[in-house]
Amino acid sequence: MRNRRGSCQPARAWRSAHFHAIAGLLLTALPAACSSDTTPMSTPAWTPLAASWTPAALEGELATLDGLTQRLAEGEEGIWIDRVLRREDFRPAADLPGNVWHAHMPPYGGSRHVFGLRFEVVADGEVLDPLDRENIPGKITAPLQELTEKGLSLRLPRGAEPPDVVRVSTFLSRGFAEDGAWRAVVEGKIGEGLAVWPGEETTIESPVPADAVLRFRIDGTAWDASTPPARFEVLLDGDLLFQEELDLSVGGDGLLREVDLPIDGLPRGRFTFRVRGAGGTTAFFAPTIGPKEIGSPGSRPWGDT
């Protein structure tokens, strides 16, 4: 099969090298060889539903967890998640040299040092520079900070105490457009897909061939350890076709799913993809309509060798 860019490969891929194995699982559900121009008409059609899709503009309030607030990122596809720390949240870090104070923060959003991480720390209205490891304790004239899975550490001038208010902000990306397709982002995994977040839905219309199925991978990551499971749903012409809950706080590789479509097909079907829940980044990766029976490499029902 040739995709819309003339390649013999499916028009989707994980960007991160850490997820080649995940991509392999998905691609086993697709033809492994390209058909020649003389392939009989029985060769099946593959319809990637995410092709040419773009997300709706984020607006209003998405579901927000206790202790976290969210604000739109102006001019960008994503949001900032804010957590406020008070002076009483900090304790001296006795195991570190210099005047270092530490505040515990549960990991959330991009604060686990994933691909594309961006964060900002503002102390009493002043934006702090990231920790420069070449600085010598005692010669620092302004607070410096380091954000890790364990929380936030501030290295302060000798004798100084933590600021009254510290805001820690993490940017969560919805993805980006590339080569005419949308690349959804979920904690280090990037691939062609529908960046539908909890509380959102999107609708795509497409013909449905006979004896076809819908294949996709659901995936997501939590903003906070207290994030409840997200419920992924797919509807066809208003009728529930698929639903499944996914624990976003666990991480992992997501779930590959295959859903039967009406056996006689439809001239045009209206697919709705939606996610219910709170406080997470979620996506339907590589939603594709294709034949139910695909055989195996070298033994395809349509005659691939």
At a glance:
This protein has one helix at residues 20-27, and strands at residues 47-48, 69-72, 78-86, 91-92, 99-104, 119-123, 126-127, 144-148, 151-156, 165-173, 176-178, 181-186, 189-194, 201-208, 212-222, 230-236, 239-246, 255-260, 266-276, 280-291. With 305 residues, it is mostly beta strands.
Would you write up a description of this structure?
The protein has 1 helix and 20 strands. It has 305 residues and is an all-beta fold. The strands form 4 sheets. Strands 1, 11, 12, 13, 15, 18 and 20 form a 7-stranded antiparallel beta sheet that branches. The radius of gyration is 23 Å and the shape is elongated.
